[in-house]
Amino acid sequence: MNIATVGLDLAKTLFQVHGVDMQGHIVVRKQLRRADVLAFFAKLEPCVVGMEACGSSHYWGRELKKLGHTVRLISPQFVRPYVKSNKTDAADAEAICEAVSRPHMRFVPIKTQAQQTMLSLHRARAGLV
Asked: How many Cβ atoms are within 10 Å of 39's Cβ, its own excluded?
């Protein structure tokens, strides 16, 4: 497969993948179980992987970077305008793939595990206060 950009929609058990080539033609559109995600991306040549920024996207971003992919996290508010039809996982993955390819898109930096741990401590403290 000659995939240039992948949109990955994260969920609890089933992840949706939408991949396009350099010309924008759809190359892959499939559903993956959580356990199969790393094996799928390990088989791919390094490409740009886009995800909506959330708590688990930082973990997946770190794991996919280890496999050599370029990972870009996008705030969900910037993905929403690219959803073409009803909100489904497949439509979200396609919208993420489209948004990642935009030249002036703003991306969220991937947090390290220590940064995420510190954020959870701050949130727990704020809840107690």
From this structure: 9
Residue located via tokens 């206060």: 129
Instruction: Break the chain into its structural domains and give their ranges.
Output: 5-128
According to CATH, the topology of domain 5-128 is Nucleotidyltransferase; domain 5 (3.30.420)
Q: Which residue blocks in the chain are alpha helix, DSSP H?
A: 37-43, 55-66, 76-79, 89-100, 113-128
Q: Contact at 8 Å (CB) between 41 and 31?
A: no
Residue 79: strand, helix, or coil: helix
Q: Are 47 and 7 in contact (CB under 8 A)?
A: no
Model confidence pLDDT, tens digit, residues 27-50: 999 999 999 999 999 999 999 999
- pTM metric for this prediction: 0.89
Task: Determine the Cα–Cα distance for residues 97 and 109; give it in Å rounded to an integer.
Answer: 17
Which of 35, 29, 43 has the alpha carbon at shortest distance from 14? 35
Contact 73, 58 (CB under 8 A): yes
